Amino acid sequence: MQIRSTTAQDLDVFLRTVHTAFGRFPETPDAHGGGVWWSAFEMDRGVIAETAGRAVGTAISYPFELTLPGSVLAPAAGITSVGVLPTHRRQGVLTAMMRYQLGALRDSGEFLSVLLATEGGIYGRFGYGPATYTRRMTVQRAQSAFRTQVHWSAIEVLPRSEATEIMGEVYDRYRRTQPGALSRPHRWWALGAGMPPVAPAPRYVAVHRDAHGVPDGYTTYVLDNGTLTIDEVITADDAVFAALARFALDHDLVTEVVFKHVPTDHPLRWVLADFDAGPTSGEMDWLWVRLLDVPRALTARGWLTDGEIVLDVDDPFLGEHHRYLLTVEGGMAECVETTRDPDLSLDVRDLGSVYLGGTTPSTLVRAGHVKAHGSVVKADALFRAERPPHCLHWF
């Protein structure tokens, strides 16, 4: 078996292989080469596994920015299209591709890698840990009264084709302050890559404007048989979120509104007069994080609490084991190797889970994943973020 990097000439065989791996058939791009989920691929970032001259596995990465605690923007490789032909599974192809890809990312200077896991049992063994979570909320219109009156007169409705620039600008402002959010490069919007609302599927866009007429929030939705389904609500302002939600709930011909992506800590249920009118379901992991360079990753993010902690970090997939002293002062961190006794002993995938502040070290101690040598209260305080991380970008 040979693992190699891809070039532009490999696009057709890459697409054929990954579609076969997932049992799907390729869509036809538009006249500009866009409008399909894979149209933003950068083929110099791909990997192909070959056996006897035939492609049997694929993986590729996108160059994203990930928002870390403290509103720090850091480069992160977004891994996607990881697939192995059904005829070649459980033969070491995936492991070989992951090892090759992680090595190539490190060699190029990357220190963070992220992905969306199709199956939760696969990627932990490669050092990825679930770091953000999302859930669905369904509100019946008949029970949708709010505790206080909310006005949505500052909202206008546009077709998806007329709102691309507005959505791109609003999303970019939002993601810069939301821990766990990923960038959506202009190229994605221009090509209509990914899933709605970035993809050009039929959608309406409700745009909220501030007192000066500047767009400060939007939601995209589709109405079918009485169910109004919202792809996403994008705003950094909870009052704007409430206005956009009220607009959706006041829509004619609607019996229920489904919010597909709601942060686990979002106050929307508390806005409702009847708390039970907004049941949540389908809570799931979303963004998985892998630290490729632990000191660089820990010193890149912002910190809210001063202190120090010794982390004994095992990385079995890469065959590495290091002990680090993390010292935080004034929101900035220093991370150096040490021989001091550890406060926490953990796998690199568990470090990925706590890195954005969405999972507490104490939770993983209680689960038996992390060993605490003393109190874990200090670790919980150190790793917290200004608010729970949330990611709703699909790649």
Automatic annotation (TrEMBL):
Task: List, for all copies, the residue spans of the domain called N-acetyltransferase.
Answer: 1-194
Q: Where does acetyl-CoA bind?
A: V82, G83, V84, R90, Q91, G92, V93, L94, T95, T118, E119
Q: One Pfam family of this protein, by short name?
A: Acetyltransf_9
Key words, A-Z: Acyltransferase, Transferase
- The lineage's top-level taxon is Bacteria
Any one Gene Ontology molecular-function term assigned to this protein's record:
aminoglycoside N-acetyltransferase activity
Q: Please name the catalytic residues of this protein.
A: Y123 (proton donor), F395 (proton acceptor)
The answer to whether the entry has keyword Acyltransferase is: yes
PROSITE patterns (UniProt xref): GNAT
Q: Which GO annotations describe the biological process of this protein?
A: aminoglycoside antibiotic catabolic process
- Subunit comment for this entry? Homohexamer; trimer of dimers.
The family assignment reads: Belongs to the acetyltransferase Eis family.
What is the protein named? Predicted acetyltransferase
- Please report the organism this UniProt entry assigns to the protein: Lentzea flaviverrucosa
